[in-house]
Amino acid sequence: MQRSWIVSEGDSGDxxxxxxxxxxxxxxxxxxxxxxxxxxxxxxxxxxxxxxxxEGDIVTAEPPDPLPSPLTPEPIALAVLYEDADxxxxxxPAGLVVHPGPGHASGTLVxxxxxxxxxxxxxxxxxxxxxxxxxxxxxxGVMLAAKHDAAHAHLSAQFxxxxxxxxxxxxxxxxxxxxxGRVDRAIGRHRSERKRMSVHTAAGREAHTAWRVLRRFSExxxxxxxxxxxxxxTHQIRVxxxxxxxxxxxxxxxxxxxxKAGAALARPALHAARLGFxxxxxxxxMAFEAVLPADLTALxxxxxxxxx
Length: 308
What we know:
Number of helices: 6
Radius of gyration: 20 Å
Number of domains: 3
Order of helices and strands: EHHEEEEHEHEEEEEEHEEH
């Protein structure tokens, strides 16, 4: 089935293979194979992987038939917030990896979705069926998945266009004097540690994060924030908050040692509290919330007690 996308401002200037990977939610190597197999056109003309795309360009692709999924459905319990024929919304627990990868061949959310939803073969990719966005392993909260290609394309487009409503809760080290702020810094791969992201990069992609203080814990030198990411870069909230001196408690990658609170927390204190989007079939605006999990609830209660 042929699919088309219009290049947005955020992808303007990227190589075609890079832009196609983001637009179609596939890997860059997959995008390159599609282009080399002459399955892709740019503005109805021939396409090369190295071509630079511009805002308003039309990228059209005819994806190959999906391969049989190598993944095994697994009866992993899911906390379902909503489900219909087009999509499913879950409350992801901290510790659950979203899709298989090195070190996590099974036991992932994808394995659970294959068991729960049945036929997701090839929806958005063989190795990530149904996935339209991701939460880090240690992040809990609301997550959305698609059940068929049309829904996947519609929902993925909303994430690319930043029309998705997202609100997170984060416990950070530091007590800012300002009640609110924002970070507008591009994010890219760390110059020397390729598994990390950084704002100190020459090839970053624009990223914007707003935050607001909900509660200050002066005794423990930490704060409870509402965080609104306006873009969706890898590790965006963790990187942006750390870059302004507000690293997330319990974050082993971007956090700091020596914090008075959060030492017993087994994961970053980050929770996807709310997710809003347009339904891919009805067009209705929908929003879902996930209650704060027990570990964060207990930590906040202890901090409150310390303040008293």
